Amino acid sequence: ENIIEVKDLHYRYKDDTHALKGISLSVPKGSRTALVGPNGAGKSTLLLHLNAINLPQQGSIKVAGIEVSPATEKEIRNKVGLVFQDPDDQVFAMTAWDDVAFGPLNMGLGRDEVKSRVEDALKLVGMWEFKDKAPHHLSFGQKKRVAIAGVVAMDPEVIILDEPTAYLDPGGQDVLMEILAGFHKRGKTILLATHDMDLAAEWADRIIVIKSGRTLAEGGKELLVNKD
Ligand code: ADP
Ligand code: ADP
Questions:
Q1: Beta-strand runs (E) in 170-211
Q2: What is the largest CA-CA distance in the chain?
Q3: For the CA of 41, the nearest atom of ligand 1
Q4: Is the beta carbon of 131 within 6 A of some atom in ligand 2?
Q5: How far is the CA of 19 from the centre of ligand 1 (A)?
Q6: Given pLDDT bands bounded at 50, 70 and 90, which one contains residue 226?
Q7: Where are the transmembrane segments (predicted)?
Q8: Is 16's C-beta closer than 6 angstroms to any atom of ligand 1?
Q9: pTM above 0.95?
Q10: Is the pLDDT confidence value at 195 over 90?
């Protein structure tokens, strides 16, 4: 069963850059899928579609059987959580606590449910002791963890991370890998975009290789053998 299905998706930016050129791919439910490809391949552009921030100009995307369209935007965003590459694009509230609460509050959850989700999420990423800190006083890695907690607190079915290890030191990368292992144990699907083939080979059970806005290959880890 595929939780995400992309068929013949095209996307052109306003300056006419043809970033996605008929890309098709699928993400199995419960998988740890790595989306790999060089810088400029179209990874970020694709991820913005999977969370309905960008809408398909041509082609289609289904998430858990629901077609991504203006009518389903909100529903899709509750099913698919996206962690941006740069946490400064995502973390903006006055305190870490408020930041993580934003999504669950927006979903209309009750106050007690919001509190317990925020607490669980901040503890999961090891940021509970920083709950009252202003995000702009946190380090890059800490902000990233708050951004991840904000996504976790919404309890989406799919968690997508764009270059999650970029700019993290090895300690920060280990923490991140532990957090991802925790999601996977909860039965979540994880899609991680990276240009780091070693990370993909170590972590993923499914690999999608894209280049120049198209899918080159989809399959198991054997795809990465001799590709360094
Ligand atoms: P990746 O995440 O794999 O590095 P991107 O999706 O960021 O790739 O970029 C795909 C292509 O789209 C590149 O040619 C990039 O220069 C272009 N691109 C990305 N964002 C924009 C934008 N906002 N406006 C115009 N072109 C863009
Ligand atoms: P109010 O009664 O003003 O609505 P809340 O209890 O909802 O207050 O939250 C006020 C602030 O207290 C929040 O912005 C957050 O920083 C902090 N906070 C709320 N709930 C908790 C909690 N369970 N644990 C720690 N801090 C909390």
A1: 189-194, 206-211
A2: 52
A3: 3
A4: yes
A5: 6
A6: low
A7: none
A8: no
A9: no
A10: no
Q: Is 127 exposed, middle or buried (0-12, 13-18, 19+ CB in 10 A)?
A: buried
Strand-pairing partners, residue 35, are 193, 208
Taking the CA of 15 as reference, the closest ligand is 1
- How many whole angstroms separate alpha carbon 42 and alpha carbon 211? 7
Place of tokens 């999977």: 50
Distance 88 CA to ligand 1 centre (A): 19
134-176 pLDDT, tens per residue? 999 999 999 999 999 999 999 999 999 999 888 778 888 888 8
Return d(Cα 100, Cα 122) in angstroms, integer.
Answer: 8
Pocket of ligand 1 contains residue 35 by CB under 6 Å: no
Mean pLDDT across 204-217: 96
Block residue for tokens 């202003």: 134
How far apart CA 52 and CA 72 sit, in angstroms, is: 8
Burial class (CB in 10 A: 0-12, 13-18, 19+), 21: middle
